Structure formats: structure tokens, C-alpha cells
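LOG
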Amino acid sequence: MEIRPRERDAVIQSLRAGVVPRIGLQHIQVGRKDEVTALLQDLERIEHGSATVRFVIGRFGAGKTFFLNLLRAIALERRFVVLTADVTTTRRLYGSGGQARALYAELLRNAAIRAKPEGGALASVVERWVSSVDQAVRDANGTDADVVRAMRQRLRPIQDLVSGYDFTAVLAKYFDGYQADDERLMTAALRWLRGQYASKLEARQDLGVRSIIDDDAIYDYLKLFAAFVKLAGYAGLLVNLDELGVLSHRLNNAQARNANYEMILRIVNDCLQGNASGIGFLFGGTDAFLEDRRRGLFSYEALATRLAENSLAGAGLRDLSGPVIRLANLSPEELYVLLHNIRHVQAGGDPARYLLTDDALQAFMLHCSRTLGAEYFRTPRDTAKAFVGLLSLLEQHPEARWQDILAATPVESSPDPASTAPETPEMRPDDPEGTDELATFRL
């Protein structure tokens, strides 16, 4: 099957840079069958009104981001609304200086649906719901007042949730703008829903509401948004958060770390105990983020007990029903299939344009095994990156022999950012809470 040039370029360029492509993942996906099956069952639970939380754990370069993006693509096909963001020191689950609101705004900015997989789908979700209610009432010969009453009636379940009244009030303002073709009012409503108002006064002037989405309420608003997307006819809401290792190894204030871990604990409790509905959380992090007893999740005892693995699992048995999913190493056979798929994508789906034979693939794998050692199986990112680099050279220099290129170029593993984090970082402007490291000492 021919591969579209746009997908081909996105996959090859992304792998060449060592990042995960947003499109074309289906062309290179291999392995992870059991993990994907477990997450598909989670999506089914969300569709039926439950809530789920999963921690996708693996070494740096093991394929966590690829796996999260794969689940994102699957969720979009199943008519989910997907929110995606990377955690940073200035965008996190809890903060006292706008960091949590910044994370919420990033999530809503990247809101995606099947028709808009690249993000920016919040306006489409809201407009779809408003227009569907308006159309249903108009078909029954209803008036503008009937439309407003119908909207409030359908939003009544949301009003019972925390901050639900203001949420529904802003949606009503959006309808007022939709009805009057007032672009300014609709934009203000969307801005409020994205958490982009920093001042209550400004929000009151624009929309007549007395509150804004602030640091201490982003989780409540995520649950509100999940309830709304179900009303709008979508299967549910999937919240996809990557790079959580920032919290453990880049956030240097112990109090700030624990506050973020408390928020994670609240999410875990709500999802496991049935206090949330129609929402799923996917957290991506490294082994150190989870297991580090000094700075990781396991340093917070309540999370250590809830995220502990099944002690009876062993002897080749895996329990994928718990919150933690560890990405197993790819087998040599799966790595071979991965290289074959990359070669196929690079050739645009035409076997006649393959730049390497099957024997060359095996020779490349042997070269990686000798160069990277055990890392060869643990970090497919480095193997894929090197392989795309080899294909790129052969494409630009048809006269070159792949044997000579391999002999002259060892494959290197990428450094783990967590392992290179400074032990005693300085105070930064983006970390107003400061650091728990020793700053000064006077005798």
C-alpha cells in the first residue's frame, strides 16, 4: 500500500530527530500487544461512564511517548476528545504562581478530536454541542427562549459538580454570541474555558462571571469538561500527560513536589474509587520518577502503596490490571519488524525502492547489539534514529556502501535527562517556591 508523502515525511523526519511523529504511527507500530489491549479495555470503561488512570513507565528512549501517542490516535478514532501536554517546571499539576493554570491552558489548547487531530478542537466541540441543541429545538418549532431553556436543562447534571454553575454560565454566553453572531463574545467564552483569564475582574467585565479557572481548580474543571464532552456526543475524555519525570528530578522544592504528588493521589483515588466519570488519565514517566524513594512517587507513601505491583506476578506472568504499566523491552524479532517498517515508510510503501536488503537489516541489528550492548533492547529510540540516519545517507549518496558507513559510525545511546540533572540547582525565576537544597551556611 502506498504511503502518503505527508505521512512518510513526518515519520522519517521525526525519527531522524529522535522524537515521536504525530501522524503515521500505524505504519511503524510493533509489539506492545498486551499493553495496547489493556488500554483499549480502559477506553471501553470510559465509554461506559467509568474513570481510569494509568502510569506508563519505561526507561528514557524505551518508547513511552510513542506508546502515549499511539493510544491518542486510537482514542481519536473511537471518538474521544484527547487533551495532551508535557509537564514542565512552569506547567504542572499544582502550583501557586499560575503553573497549574498554564498546564490546563496547554491541555485545552491541544484538545483534539478525530476531525482535528492536530489540536485546537475546543471551539469545534463547543460549537457542535450548541448547534445540535439549537437544531433540535428549532426542528420542534421552538424559539430562542426555548433553546436557552433546553441548554440549561441539558447542563443541569454539570451544575451539580464543583464550579459547574460558572461553567454553564460561560457556555450560555457562548450561545448568546453564537445567536447574535458576536465573535467577540464567543472568543471570550472560549478564552475562559481554556483557562486563559488571569484576572477575575477582566472575566467579569467580558462575561459577567465572578470566577476564573485558577491553579487550585484545574482538576475539577477537567472533570467538568469530561462531563460536557459526553453531553456533546463524544465517547469520553482522555488526558495525556508526558514527561512527569520533571516533577521528581527537575522540581527542586520538596514542598512543591509533594503538592503535585497530592494532586496525583487525588486523581488516583477518584479514578479507582469511582468518584470520577467519563475521563481517563495517562501519565508517562521514567523508572526513577516512579521508584525513587527520595524524590519519586514512591517517596509519597500513599502513592507507593496504591501503585505497588502485584506481588504474586512473576515467573513470566504480568498483571496489567493495576495503574502501572511497564513497557517491556522489544524482542529482537520485534526490532527487526520495526526496522522493516521504517524501511517501508522511507520507500513510500514501494518495495522496489528499498535501499537495504533483509540481510542488511540483520547486519545493522548485529552492529547495534555490539555497539549499544544491553541498551540495544531497552532503547528502540536510538536504534530507530540511527537506522533512519543510515537510510538518509544512502538516499543522498547512492554510490556509498552501507557496510562502509556502519564500519565507520558507531551507534550511540542518548543520555537520560534525569541522570544529568544538577544536584544543587540554583534558584530560578520560574520556580518561585525556591529550592530545598542548601543555599547558604554560616558558622
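LOG (cont.) second protein
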Amino acid sequence: MRLSRLAYLTTAVLSLPLQAAEALPSLKLDDAITLSGLSSGGYMAGQYHLAFAEQVNGVAMLAAGPVYCAQNSLGLALEHCFNKATSAPDMASINAYIKQQQSLGTLAPAEALAGDKVWIFHGTKDATVYPALSATLHQQYQQWLNADNIVLVNDHAFGHTFPTDRTDLGRCDVSEAPYLASCGYDAAGALLQHLLGEVKPKTGHTTGQLLAINQHQLAPAAADTLAQTGYLYVPQSCTNGQSCRLHVSFHGCKQNADSVGEAFVSGTGLNNYADTNQLVVFYPQTSASSINPFNPNACWDWWGYTGPDYATRNGRQLQAVQQLVNALRQR
């Protein structure tokens, strides 16, 4: 695959503007992809899975609730999909909407989900998204997948964070930027193990390239709802022409590169596993906005700020990410 339109540079300092436009090395990417995301990124990963299941083999969702939990309402999002112990999403209405959209073709057909793998994680000390919502998400997925294909991990006393086995980060029982913590738990390895099957041990230090890409050039739908710059981690083996898989990782609110620099796109451990498992990792990026749309924390749209179709194939962000994925997979 040759993407002459792709602008990139190695991102030693992500706060610097793009300095050059060069061609991405030719990549041989498998047709099927996997997904993961934290918080709003977890909600977004579930939405992408249901919208484009034909191209997805598995999804990992951390600190998130059921797909379409907010039902196109910020009020419902705050009342039932966020941090309240009284959270009680109307699952009958939610699942009826999803079934209707599947029948209309604005979501993938239910049978496209059947063989996929799902990994769900939630810390018991999460004060941002109520932990019991992950159990609701787990129950929701049981209507589409064999129970053996779904893993729910909800017995760790962690806060609202992406847990790692690194020792140089903050405490795991608190929720603070960059929402990565030293937990003695390797979430990246656990989720990849479930989604991909047997994975090789990760590298101690990454050896590939972290590239900045121009999302607006690659995807027409990205211009009005995503940041101009997204990030792509490419292992040396993939640069050298070996066949590789694509994994899409969605950041959480206040976890985009404009907010936390390269912390998320280089710090979860996903890139270390990518080096040893021929895995390209794409980190799409949102942008914060104070008006039209109102998204001051650079969240992914899981409640409808980009429009009522946000959780379907017609959603502006879902269209943008799918265009980006397809551009990266072009031969």
C-alpha cells in the first residue's frame, strides 16, 4: 500500500507542528481489524464494532457502558451512563434501537458479530464511569456473541485509568491525567491475548516508528470532527514488507495528544506488543471545541454532539474513522 498523501514524522516531541510531508512505507495490512478504547474511547470502540462489524474481529472496552447507552441525550448520558450509582440505562429501548438500525442497514447485521471476541474491563474504584455499567455492557453483548468469546474483568481496585505493568506512572486507584497508571496489571497484553489469540512477549523498548498522519487529508469526513493530526505506530517488520494486522486504539476524554502529549499513543504497552506481533496500531484523534460542537474535553461522541446518527454508519465520527481505516488498508 502506498499513501503519497500521508504526512508524517517521528514524534519525539508531539507538540511540534508537522515539519515534512513524506510517503508512508508500503504496508501489507490484513483485511480484518481489532479495536480498543478507554472511557469515551471505549464507548466509541463499541459503536464502531456494531457499525462496521464486517471488518472487525474483536473489540476491547475499558471503563465504558453499553453501546448507545446515552440514546442521543446528554441528560441521559449524565444520569445513566456516567458516574451515578443509580445508573440504570433503558436496555429494552437501547437494544430495540440497535435491532432497528441493524434491520435498516445503518448498523452491521447481527450475524456479522457472531464470531468476534470482546474484552471488557472496569476498575472497582472508578469514580468517573460507574463500574456496574460494564456488567450491563457484558450482558448486552451476550445477545450477539457466544459467551466463551466475551471476557469481563471487573475485580481490580483500579480507578478511571488504563492499567499498565509499568513502574514509572502514578497510583492506580486515582483518576488523573494522563489516565495511565502503574497497576501491576498489563491491560494491553490481556486484551490483545483475548482478541488475537496467542501473542508473543512484548519488547522492553519500542523499535518501530510513531508517525503523525494528516487525518484531514486521508478522510474527507474527518475535517469537521477530528483533529488534523492522528498517530500510527509501525513496527520495523511491517515497514519491511511483512503482512501485519491493524489495531485501532481510541483515547478517552482529556487523553488526546493535544492534552497529554505522547503519553497515550506511546505509553499503554500496545506498541511494545506491536513490535513482536506484526501489529500496526492506529491512534485516531479528536479535537476539543467549545462551540458547534460543544466538546471541551475532546471526547469521542457517545451521546450525540455530532448529530442524532452518531452511533450508526451515518455518524460523522464513525464515517471519519472508517475512511481512515480504509485508507490505511488500501493496496
